[in-house]
Amino acid sequence: MGEVMNDVSAEVETRRKALESAIEQGAGYIEPFRLARAADDLKAVKHRMGLGMDLTVVALVGGTGSGKSTMANAISGLDFADSGELRPTTERAAACAWGEGAEPMLDFLGVDEDRRIRKGSLLTDEEPEFEGLVLLDLPDHDSIRVSHSVQVTQLMPVVDLLIWVLDPQKYADQALHAGYLQGLARRKDSMIVVLNQIDTVPFDQRERIVDDVKDVLKADGLDGIPVITASALDHQGIDEIKIHIASAVGRTSINTVTAKAEIAAIAGRLWDSVAESEAEVSDDSLRPVAQQLARAAGIGAVGSSMRASGESWREFALAKPEQPATSTVTAIRGTWLDSVERDLPPTWAKGIHDSVAGPEKLRRDVAEAVDSVPVSKPSSRNSTILIWLGVLLILAGIGTRVAAVVGAPILFGDTAASWIAAGVLILSGIWAIVMARSVRRSSAVRAADRYERAVQEKILQTLRTDLGEPAQVVLTQHRRTREALATAAA
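== ATP-binding cassette domain-containing protein ==
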């Protein structure tokens, strides 16, 4: 059971840290007043958690003379609470703690140092199922001292199990029902009623009294609450009461449940300060922007002129890139920002808008990126070699035939073989000249493609620096805030 409680406490601590992170990450983007309120509320939660998340508080509540203190002693097996006929009124709260770590809770509950007692530990106690239990004997709720009833009222929110100890002669007391029980309908699953001193009631009247008590509780909206008959002096009903206490110890403490609920509530109040998701800035999202800016800089015209130069042998003037217009850059930047800021609350969208480069700086940086890639004419070396090779082959073919005709055979003489050799040489020369044109054209296309890719890559690098990276910083902060709030509110 201790391991389960530790797991629950660890979960609450995880949620608390997540909320703390969300408040930290959201600074500057979440409305300051709401953030300050959340921070103050979180301090209160940390204080509550500091009281002990694994403690189970069980309080004995009742009126003067009901035998609460005797009941507390019977349950604990210790004489830590005032009891007896000489002191029928409980003046100050007393507490018995099973195990260690209850001091902060007892400080909060206002239990004086001399009214505390610790019973054993998990290793030495004969009731390990009570480890983490804090048993309170509270001041009488009907005491003439106003401070007593006030203390009882203040302790209610941290009590895991309320044990109402009633005098079988006073169970219908109007002060008890109007002042306390009628306002605890929501706590009825964490309450039991004990009719103490049942030994003073004749056997034939006990069942009737129990039925009357159940009817009165039902009228208070507390139907279904266990009603136990007991006698603290004779130890009657004590084992049954302990079963209910052990069950309470086995459940998650109200302190933990409340801290968890408060953390979720704080996170819920901040949830509309973030969007359900955020855009992811990557090269894939920036590449279309780079292509648009490249077109705005006339890179397409430059590439076309480079490709056209491969179609002609004459001198060909290449186009030059242009300075992109500020209006065009502004429009392209604005469209990209709209896609990145979609659905974000205004403060986060403004954060992105303010963090990225403005239109004029972006235009200058894009122009520098474009100018950093030189525009050079496509290389024609291979095509020139092929042309000269073709001319030489044609001349060799013609020379072969001329030599055969004039009677100076080179290899084959004036035979069919010389005709074939001459034809092969001439055709090979023509093929080399044709291939030279194709090589020139292909070289120009490759050069244009390389240039366009190089320019787009340079522009993409500029976009990463001017747009992507600063926007991603804000988006990452938003994502961390959103995920932290989701963890806290889960």
